[in-house]
Amino acid sequence: MVEIHIRMKVRDFDVFWQGFQERGAPLRARHGSKGAKVYRSQDDPAGVLLLLTWESRERFAQFLQDPEVQDSMVRGGVIGRPDIVHVEPVGELPA
To answer: Is the CB of residue 56 less than 8 Å from the CB of residue 2?
Structure first.
């Protein structure tokens, strides 16, 4: 498993959110997604942070190359190139 953090901007959050659920969910599942959390910036309504869990880094790379995924991102109003960071947990501390 790999965790992926993606920061991006969208033109209209409601349009993005609808597409992320309706078009994106089956595409993500087909390419090995194990779950997604979506956050919206409190300071910038166009700012979105995705926290994704994926089967493997390779499967995520294949997902990004899928023309349907690229079309869905355009239709969802993603602005520019998302900032993608692959992370792995190293520990957890109590508050």
So the answer is: yes
Tell me the domains of the chain and their CATH numbers. Answer: 2-87 (3.30.70.100)
Per-residue pLDDT tens digits for 60-93? 999 999 999 999 999 999 999 999 999 988 999 9
Q: Within 10 A of 90 (CB to CB), how many other CB atoms are there? A: 5
Residue 21 has phi, psi (to 5 degrees) of -80, -50
Residue 8: which residues within 8 A CB-CB, separation 6 or more? Answer: 47, 48, 50, 78, 79, 80, 82, 83
Per-residue tokens: 47: 């700012």
